[in-house]
Amino acid sequence: MARKFFVGGNWKCNGTAEEVKKIVNTLNEAQVPSQDVVEVVVSPPYVFLPLVKSILRPDFHVAAQNCWVKKGGAFTGEVSAEMLVNLDIPWFVGDKVAYALAQGLKVIACVGETLEQREAGSTMDVVAAQTKAIADRVSNWSNVVIAYEPVWAIGTGKVASPAQAQEVHDELRKWLAKNVSADVAATTRIIYGGSVNGGNCKELGGQADVDGFLVGGASLKPEFIDIIKAAEVKKSA
Ligand SMILES: O=C(CO)COP(=O)(O)O
């Protein structure tokens, strides 16, 4: 079974209500490949989640950025995973993966090495250890997308080369085959994150084991549409 391309836009801590409406308008007006070809998820800051959910085109979905790790209660400022489920927020991106998964949210789980770890040659050990920590908590792999996100490439403008991304994604898939199952390895989307933009997305997306992207800075700009369209490179692959 072919893996459907996945493009996540992680808005992090950005935007005013007006800016958010403008981004959503741009997304809503865009001509992009159909849902059969690409799955698109955007994660606005919490305060904008209901707004974005109410105005975003129905073929795109929203993700919450992180959640509280227990049931609700007297925890100032926290938002529990149960509240997200109650509001029909389907996706989650952040580091509280175990709790989000336990509540039935679909998660984008992030792994990746620092520059020091890459230079020391320990990328795969680091990625394997982080993936194991996630795998230990997953019972339903269809709810998981793994983002390999080298820390040194996040928000730096220093993107991994297509060969670097492919090498790590390939190794990560082999890890899944050995430690989880051949089926999970074949079907789990492994997406690349770290300074993806409209200029580098096609070459990265053309790599056999790059199943999409987790995009930060460029997801706030119109070039996010080009990144979504990079899904088309898989058609000719
Ligand atoms: O961290 C990221 C997405 O979660 C990547 O961010 P940038 O695309 O800004 O490097």
UniProtKB/TrEMBL annotation:
Keywords: Cytoplasm, Gluconeogenesis, Glycolysis, Isomerase
Enzyme Commission code: 5.3.1.1
Class of enzymatic activity (EC top level): isomerase
Taxonomy, superkingdom: Eukaryota
Stored PROSITE patterns: TIM_1, TIM_2
Cellular compartments annotated: Cytoplasm
UniProt keyword Glycoprotein present: no
Annotated metabolic or biological route of this protein: Carbohydrate biosynthesis; gluconeogenesis; Carbohydrate degradation; glycolysis; D-glyceraldehyde 3-phosphate from glycerone phosphate: step 1/1
Keyword Transport attributed: no
InterPro entries for this protein: Aldolase_TIM, TIM_sf, TrioseP_Isoase_bac/euk, Triosephosphate_isomerase, Triosephosphate_isomerase_AS
Pfam families: TIM
Catalytic activity: D-glyceraldehyde 3-phosphate = dihydroxyacetone phosphate
Main location: cytoplasm
Sequence similarity: Belongs to the triosephosphate isomerase family.
Assembly notes: Homodimer.
Protein name (database record): Triosephosphate isomerase, cytosolic
Organism: Brassica napus (Rape)
